[in-house]
TrEMBL record:
Organism lineage string: Bacteria, Bacillati, Actinomycetota, Actinomycetes, Micrococcales
Any one Gene Ontology molecular-function term assigned to this protein's record: nucleotide binding
Family under the similarity heading: Belongs to the Gfo/Idh/MocA family.
Gfo/Idh/MocA-like oxidoreductase C-terminal domain segment(s): 130-326
Protein name: Gfo/Idh/MocA family oxidoreductase
Positions of the Gfo/Idh/MocA-like oxidoreductase N-terminal domain: 5-118
InterPro entries: Gfo/Idh/MocA-like_OxRdtase_C, Gfo/Idh/MocA-like_OxRdtase_N, Gfo/Idh/MocA_Oxidoreductases, NAD(P)-bd_dom_sf
Organism listed in the record: Knoellia koreensis
UniProt xrefs under Pfam families: GFO_IDH_MocA, GFO_IDH_MocA_C
Length: 330
């Protein structure tokens, strides 16, 4: 079977990483790249550097990686769908819910494979956590807490921290628990002089009763990417910077010191840091999308799921603006 012909549009900070992976992906030929600003990072590797998505389509690509700024996702996505080209679109799917709905509907109407690049799903620590939750190792899940903070990335100009970084946590929380957000209450702050928010704190409720907390900002010199999943048997701590998953078990040691026992809830038990394989998440993401295009079994973030994430992100912004809890329709 001939290799799939892939194209890439958007050669910025993320685009250069997509070019590296696509250029070495088994069963795929990266035939051309496109960016109206040219190949500023020198990632084309001798391939044609085109100006727009229309020129990419003319090369006869089977699918396209879309890594342009969020504001252009709708335009580029609809053009690819109309041309019958499968697409993997960087997160978020589009700049707002109506645009995301249009893109998702366009790919569905054409029977095309459309996916969203929520890369955290492919992090080994979260993959392990999801598998262990499915196996019942934690029992009932009570709470998911995420912390995602660090310095402002100069690459972002068209959305705030909720849609850029917060969508990671919205998607991974729904995916790892297999529950949907039913309500959110959020507060935001504007501290860097930009028109978009650069800090958000969110409290959410999931369909299975799990409570969530998400702290996200672009204001900290400390870079942190942590997910804590607490359940009836203990807690998983996933550090997605190092791809480590640690299990903190509830203790079963009886406290004979009665004064201490009455002030303690769950006691501390064994701590286990799992030894897990750590493939590159971006490569795993591309491998799954390639397999989906080929009609094989694959784990992709569908555009419908990407649409839901955008809806939840906008509910967070609405809550912060109104000062009220926003209930999400099922």
């Amino acid at each position: 079977m001939a290799n799939l012909r892939a194209g890439l549009i958007g050669l910025g900070m993320m685009g250069r990483h997509h070019a590296r992976v696509l250029g070495s992906l088994d069963g795929v030929d990266l035939v051309a790249v496109a960016d109206p600003g040219g190949d500023v990072h020198g990632v084309a590797g001798g391939r044609p550097v085109l100006e727009n998505v229309e020129q990419l389509i003319e090369t006869g690509i089977d699918y396209c990686m879309v890594a342009v700024p969020t504001i252009y996702h709708e335009q580029v996505g609809l053009t690819l769908a109309e041309a019958g080209v499968h697409a993997l679109v960087e997160k978020p799917l589009a700049q707002d819910t109506p645009a995301a709905r249009k893109v998702a509907d366009a790919f569905a109407a054409k029977g095309l494979v459309g996916a969203v690049g929520h890369i955290e799903r492919y992090n080994p620590a979260l993959q392990q956590a999801r598998s262990r939750l499915e196996a019942g190792e934690l029992g009932d899940v009570y709470q998911v807490t995420t912390r995602r903070q660090g310095p402002f990335p100069a690459r972002i100009a068209d959305v705030g921290v909720v849609k850029d970084l917060g969508t990671h946590d919205i998607d991974l929380t729904a995916w790892v628990t297999q529950q949907e957000f039913t309500s959110v209450a959020a507060r935001t702050a504007y501290k860097s002089g930009r028109e978009h928010e650069d800090l958000v704190a969110v409290v959410g409720q999931l369909s299975g009763g799990t409570v969530t907390n998400h702290l996200v900002n672009w204001l900290s010199p400390l870079k942190e990417r942590v997910t804590i999943i607490t359940g009836e048997r203990g807690a998983f701590v996933a550090d997605t910077l190092t791809a480590d998953l640690t299990f903190y078990a509830n203790g079963e040691v009886e406290h004979t010191w009665s004064d201490l026992a009455q002030f303690r809830g769950v006691s501390e038990g064994d701590v286990v840091r799992y030894a897990i394989a750590k493939p590159e998440p971006l490569r795993v993401e591309h491998e799954n999308f390639r397999d989906a295009v080929l009609g094989k079994e694959a784990d992709i973030v569908t555009m419908e799921q990407g649409l839901t994430t955008v809806r939840v992100a906008e509910a967070c912004i609405e809550s912060a603006t109104s000062g009220r809890t926003v209930v999400l329709d099922g």
